[in-house]
Structures are given as structure tokens and as C-alpha cells.
């Protein structure tokens, strides 16, 4: 049974297959065809919807999500909003009205998704300003990019869409927002159903604790585990595989912890990247900046760090950072828990050390001690919403002018995320000199034999990785000469991009 609200109204659906997406539910079962299918892989944003969840203060907080790769069963206890639900009678929502007035729609196919991303941006602003949107300053370029980076428009161009984003704040909210936006009863009902234990759907299981998870796995050995579904669901939509039985990890209390300990940060495997962003901003700013280039807002609100690790893609962005930080992973099975260094988890292409009964429970990041630095640089063809061709995550410290405890981790250079051991040895104990880095670049050539694929040729990857080491040298030399050798230097460091401003 899925109890949820849809555009302000309660819905209760039973007997749905485990692997039906929100997009299929909308278009094929609810007859709501305003939400479009473009790519069916989370890339284009045409299917963007808004999901409202209790904000912990009696209201609802909305985020955007890709309906094409969102399991419909994850709607339980949430408010699903689509483009059909925004207008108040004939009065369009400010996001819609501004799109019309700024001539920001041409083909119209991508428009519902863009409107929904603007809707979540507007509602977030309204939430922040206590409903006084007209008094807000215009959005920064960074905020607009974060909000719209997951929506492609192939014809109109982005300027009128950005104009609409800025203009929508000026529309009088009380006449333009749907009546349900300030309906306390709706918020209370969503919160109540969010708390409720779901009735078992037969093939879609939602355990609350690890003990329940282990019992379910024993009884349903072929069931697949799902967290944010942003990797798993592509098997459904791109490879047309069926996922007849699923166990959802998102409700597991043990996988939702986010705790600061003396030794470091403990992150439950089902914590989303969106939830991690502010925490990383404080403690691991280079990791936080990487997240600005990790997929899109739609994906970051669903994708989990645990899913990124367990998926074990050689071009996943999180794992190299974990290797550079010397993170450890807590794995758990009915037999008990074991902790292992993240670098021992990745065995071969998409092969991990996870045992058949084990689940990834926590990721543990040691704090950056004083003087310890972290830099992360991602190279991809597109700045927004693209997977890495090569990613370098580097950590080190300088003691008396010499590099110590150097950890150089790369994605995209081997079948697994891996450290460049030879290059590390070449730098360990050396000053950050041209000669030391020349030796490290030489060693890097033996460390990796990267593949050629659509994201880059082997030669490109070798050159790019060596250039990232050169960038590291220049960064260390510049920082040292400016006396900026502190762990939290907030520079534009993760972005290898071409900002026009
Ligand atoms: C459009 C798009 C853009 C993307 N961009 C990026 C990007 O820029 N960088 C990047 O790194 N990735 C990117 N991804 C990939 C994906 O978003 C990430 O890998 C994400 O972190 C996966 O997390 P999830 O919770 O969605 O995992 P899921 O899809 O739910 O699960 C992935 C796999 O891990 C298993 N699993 C999940 N959690 C656990 C656990 N706790 N224990 C054991 N097994 C588990 C699942 O069974 C499944 O096999 C992108 C994906 C899409 C669709
Ligand atoms: S249809 Fe393209 S992101 Fe969903
Ligand atoms: S309006 Fe549809 S692609 Fe731009």
C-alpha cells in the first residue's frame, strides 16, 4: 500500500509492482501526462516533479526529483506535486506565470520539468523569507545553476529561463500559489502518514531496523537492495531489466545516522548527498565543492553516499575522496559488524568486499587534522550533471617544507577507484619541487593503464591525471608562498570550469 498526497489530495494505492516508477504511475495509472519522459535516465529533467516531506517544524519542504528513476513506493508519506497541481484556478503559480511572461518556453516538452525546478526554488525562498519573496535579493548565479543544472532546454536557451527565475519572486504569492501551499491540515496528514509503519506491499519491503532487514533478506534472498535508486533504476529503464522484489534501505534508522565523533564524521549509508552538503561545507569544503558538480539537484536529493560506494563504479565521484581521506567503512551482517579501510573495499570492476549477507552500514571520515589538506578536482565533458572522465582527490601535509602522508586517489584511471602508489612514494618526504613532481608524474604512468571509452581516451586520461598532479604542485607552491596552508582554505578549487564572470 502506498499512502501519499498528490497535488493536495490524499491517495492510497495497493497492488503496484515493486519496480513501477513515479513517472509510470503518473502517466499510465493516474492519467497525469503533464510530466514528460525525455531520457528515462535522470539526465534531462523533463520528468521533474516536486516531493514534499515534513520539515520537522510542522510544514513541508519540497525538493525536485526525476520521476523517471524514482520508485513509486518511495512516495509513501510524501506530497507529490506535478505541473498540473500548481495553478490556483486560472491564476498560474509565479514559476509558471514568469515562464510565460519571459517567453521561456518554446517546444514545451522540457517546460513542465523546468517549471517544477523553479517551483521548488520558489517554495524554498518562500520558506526562507517567511512568505515575503518580493523583498528577497535576486538569486546568485551559483544558486540558479544549482537549481536548474538538472534541466536541459534544447531550443529556447537558458537566458529567458533565468529571467523567469528572477522575475517569479515579484508575483504576489497569495493570489498565485495553490491553496494547498499553506494548508496546515495537509502538512499534518503528510507528517502522520510519514510516521506510520507502511503495510507490507508484498514485493517492496521497507524495514525500519537492521534486524528486520536481515530477516527480510533471509526470507527473500533474490530481493535487491535500493536506496536512492539513482544507479539501480537505470537497470530498469536502460537495460529493461525487471526488479520484481526490492528492499528499501532509506527507512533504516541505523543507516540514517549523521554523527560527529572525536575521531571523525560517521555517515549512515542511506544519508543523501543533499543532507551531507552543509556538513561537508563546514568540515570538508573540498568535498562540498565537488558536490556542486555531482549530478544535479534532482539526483543529489535522492542519491546516497552508501549507494555511491556500494555501486563501486570506477567513475563514481565519492570513492576517490574516501580513499584520499583514509575513510573506513562499517559493514554489517547477521553475524556482526566489521570495519575496513575504504581502499580495501574495491576489489575489481564492480566487485566489492561486501559479503552476501552484508550491508554497508556507515562511512567513517576522519577529521582533517591541523595542516592536513584535501583537494578534489573533477574533469568531465559538461560542467553540470555529468560523470567524471578523471577525478583526482589528493590529501597531504607539509612538515618543514616536505610532503608527508601523501594520498593521491583517482577515479576513471582503473577498473576501481584507486590510489597512485608509485606517485605517492615519489612525493613522500620530498619538497613540492618540480623535480619531485616530475618523478611522481613518471611513476603515475606505471600506476595506471586507463581504458579508452566515450568519456576519454587512455592517452587523454594519462595526460589529464598528470596535469592534475601539476595543478597540485602549483596549488601547494602558491598556498605556501601566500601562507595559506590551512585545511579549510575555501578557494574555487574543485571547479575546473570556465565561469564567464
Ligand atoms: C543523471 C545522473 C547523474 C549522476 N551523476 C553522478 C556524478 O556526477 N557522480 C557520481 O559519482 N555518480 C553520479 N551518478 C550515479 C549515482 O547518482 C550515485 O552513484 C549515487 O550516489 C548512488 O546512490 P543511490 O542511493 O541512488 O544508490 P542506488 O541506486 O539505490 O544503489 C546503487 C547500488 O548499491 C547498492 N546499495 C545501495 N546502498 C547500499 C548499502 N547501504 N549496502 C549495500 N548495497 C547498497 C544497491 O543495491 C545498488 O546495487 C549519477 C546518476 C544519474 C542518474
Ligand atoms: S526523463 Fe529525462 S530525467 Fe527523467
Ligand atoms: S523549450 Fe523545450 S527544449 Fe527548450
Automatic annotation (TrEMBL):
SMART domains listed in its UniProt record: CO_deh_flav_C
Annotated InterPro entries: 2Fe-2S-bd (IPR002888), 2Fe-2S-bd_dom_sf (IPR036884), 2Fe-2S_ferredoxin-like_sf (IPR036010), 2Fe-2S_ferredoxin-type (IPR001041), 2Fe2S_fd_BS (IPR006058), Ald_Oxase/xanthine_DH-like (IPR016208), Beta-grasp_dom_sf (IPR012675), CO_DH_flav_C (IPR005107)
Keywords of this entry: FAD, Flavoprotein, Iron, Metal-binding, Oxidoreductase
GO molecular-function terms, A-Z: 2 iron, 2 sulfur cluster binding; FAD binding; iron ion binding; xanthine dehydrogenase activity
Domain 2Fe-2S ferredoxin-type: 1-86
Pfam families: CO_deh_flav_C, FAD_binding_5, Fer2_2
Entry annotated with the keyword tRNA processing: no
Domain called FAD-binding PCMH-type: residue spans: 196-370
PANTHER family for the chain: XANTHINE DEHYDROGENASE
Protein name from the UniProt record: Xanthine dehydrogenase small subunit
Organism of provenance: Onishia taeanensis
Amino acid at each position: 500500500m502506498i499512502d501519499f498526497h498528490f497535488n493536495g489530495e490524499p491517495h492510497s494505492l495497493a497492488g503496484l509492482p515493486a519496480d513501477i516508477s513515479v513517472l509510470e504511475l503518473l502517466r499510465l495509472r493516474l492519467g497525469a501526462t503533464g510530466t514528460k519522459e525525455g531520457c528515462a535516465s535522470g539526465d534531462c529533467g523533463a520528468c521533474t516533479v516536486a516531493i514534499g516531506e515534513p520539515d520537522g517544524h510542522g510544514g513541508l519542504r519540497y525538493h525536485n526529483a526525476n520521476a523517471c528513476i524514482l520508485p513509486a513506493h518511495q512516495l509513501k508519506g510524501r506530497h507529490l506535486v506535478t505541473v498540473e497541481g500548481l495553478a490556483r484556478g486560472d491564476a498560474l503559480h509565479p514559476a509558471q506565470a514568469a515562464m510565460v511572461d519571459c517567453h521561456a518556453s518554446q517546444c514545451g516538452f522540457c517546460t513542465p520539468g523546468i517549471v517544477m525546478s523553479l517551483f521548488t526554488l520558489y517554495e524554498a525562498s518562500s520558506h526562507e523569507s517567511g512568505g515575503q519573496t518580493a523583498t528577497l535579493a535576486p538569486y546568485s548565479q551559483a544558486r540558479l545553476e544549482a537549481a536548474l543544472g538538472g534541466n536541459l532546454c534544447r531550443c529556447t536557451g537558458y537566458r529567458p529561463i533565468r529571467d523567469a527565475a528572477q522575475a517569479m519572486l515579484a508575483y504576489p504569492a497569495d493570489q498565485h500559489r495553490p491553496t494547498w501551499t499553506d494548508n496546515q491540515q495537509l502538512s499534518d496528514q503528510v507528517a502522520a502518514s510519514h510516521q506510520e509503519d507502511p503495510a507490507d506491499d508484498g514485493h517492496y519491503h521497507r524495514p525500519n531496523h537492521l534486524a528486520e532487514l536481515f530477516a527480510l533478506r533471509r526470507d527473500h534472498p533474490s530481493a535487491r537492495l535500493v536506496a536512492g535508486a539513482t544507479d539501480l533504476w537505470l537497470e530498469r529503464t536502460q537495460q529493461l531489466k525487471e526488479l520484481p522484489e526490492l528492499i528499501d534501505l532509506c527507512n533504516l534508522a541505523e543507516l540514517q545516522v549523521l554523527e560527529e565523533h572525536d575521531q571523525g564524521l560517521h555517515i549512515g549509508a542511506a544519508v543523501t548527498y543533499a543532507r551531507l552538503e552543509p556538513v561537508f561545507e563546514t568540515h570538508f569544503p573540498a568535498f562540498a565543492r565537488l558536490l556542486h558538480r555531482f549530478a544535479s539537484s534532482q539526483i543529489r536529493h535522492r542519491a546516497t553516499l552508501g549507494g555511491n560506494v556500494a555501486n563501486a563504479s570506477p567513475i563514481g565521484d565519492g570513492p576517490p575522496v574516501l580513499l584520499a581521506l583514509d575513510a573506513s567503512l562499517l559493514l554489517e551482517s547477521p553475524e556482526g559488524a566489521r570495519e575496513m579501510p575504504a581502499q580495501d573495499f574495491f576489489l575489481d570492476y564492480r566487485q566489492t568486499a561486501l559479503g552476501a549477507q552484508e550491508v554497508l552500514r556507515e562511512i567513517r571520515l576522519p577529521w582533517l587534522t591541523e595542516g592536513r589538506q584535501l583537494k578534489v578536482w573533477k574533469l568531465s565533458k559538461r560542467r553540470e550533471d555529468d560523470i567524471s572522465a578523471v577525478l583526482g582527490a589528493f590529501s597531504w601535509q607539509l612538515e618543514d617544507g616536505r610532503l608527508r602522508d601523501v594520498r593521491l586517489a583517482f577515479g576513471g584511471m582503473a577498473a576501481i577507484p584507486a590510489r597512485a602508489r608509485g606517485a605517492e612514494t615519489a612525493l613522500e618526504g620530498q619538497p613540492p619541487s618540480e623535480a619531485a613532481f616530475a618523478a611522481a608524474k613518471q611513476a603515475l604512468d606505471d600506476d595506471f593503464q586507463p581504458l579508452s571509452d566515450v568519456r576519454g581516451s587512455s592517452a587523454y586520461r594519462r595526460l589529464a591525471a598528470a596535469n592534475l598532479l601539476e595543478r597540485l604542485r602549483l596549488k601547494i607552491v602558491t598556498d605556501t608562498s601566500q601562507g595559506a596552508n590551512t585545511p579549510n582554505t575555501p578557494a574555487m578549487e574543485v571547479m575546473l570550469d570556465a565561469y564567464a564572470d
